[in-house]
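Students often ask what a holo structure prediction actually looks like on paper. The answer is less mysterious than it sounds. You provide the chain, you provide the ligand, and the output is a string of discrete structure tokens encoding the 3D arrangement of the protein together with NDP.
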Amino acid sequence: MPEITTRDTVILGSGCSGLTAAIYAGRSNLKPLVLEGHEPGGQLSITTLVENFPGWPEGIQGPELIENMKKQATRFGAELRMAHLSSIDLTKHPFELNTGKEIIHTRTLIIASGASARWLNLPSEQALIGYGVSSCATCDGFFASGKEIAVIGGGDSAMEEALFLTRFASKVTIINRTERFRSSPIMLERAMAHPNIKFVSNTTVEEVLGVEEKDVKGLRLKNRASGEEYVLPVSFMFLGIGHIPNAHAFKGLVDLDEDGYILTQQDVHCTLDGKIIPGVYACGDIQDRRYRQAITAAGSGCMAALEVEKYLEEHGR
Ligand code: NDP
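The corresponding structure tokens follow.
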């Protein structure tokens, strides 16, 4: 029989929002349990320099920021644990989380499972993940040393990845599917000013070449205006095309929007069929499709923890 434990609050996810919630819940003496998912530390843990988090005038490396947050959360009594949930029951109270080895009853739940990298979903791309196709420049940049590579996307992620990858690659080509760049002007200007970064606009990737060799040999590209197809010889393709929310486990348990983001009311309250589920909150990138910043994730994590505190006070903790 799995062991049964009871908690005041459980936080699902250990990115910026989950850890901020843990710091606040910890300081309220709630001894929060943080269950780290399949991407511990979230997106910040695979990013490079974070230049826009207030308080770090020279910027801070994403993994260092996350490590600091973890230390801060554990200092206030948060417990961090690696676990994957096999089931979640929000119909009974306390809510029931099953890890397979343990059943956790919790009076409140904060969902902070974030978002994961988006893929093009081409069969050739999927076949070559780990063989020259990557969504994590920080993790795999080193393997692109001395090579000509491509970065897909036109947002800040793509610009940041491309700039980072110039440390390793001999040439970086950014491929954007439209003429319009979604990235902030400062990032775009920096990338455009770099001598080793080239841009290809209004172009889609039709195929990643090299499936048989199990090694990226190039990209078959298509110019959307002319319909012309041609091969760009590169040895690596990095994706920087945004993220999708990690909310599949919550389908049917809480309301999601058409793209799978958790819909919240009054900022962080989860709902089912439009009605607030008392004691269940969502914060960070899993419910924020608009801002998606580390600082907004931290802000909503704080809000979720304050709601937990209020709920437990009102329900005679
Ligand atoms: P964005 O949603 O801003 O940009 C995604 C990019 O990928 C767009 O150019 C989009 O094209 C393209 N894209 C999406 N799907 C596909 C597809 N299937 N095929 C080809 N291209 C595709 O995501 P980001 O991850 O870049 O940024 C998210 C947020 O994080 C932003 O708010 C950004 O400012 C922030 N950020 C900040 C950083 C910093 O300050 N250092 C670093 C990284 C991110 P289209 O425009 O045609 O939809």
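The domain at 119-239 is CATH 3.50.50.60 (FAD/NAD(P)-binding domain).
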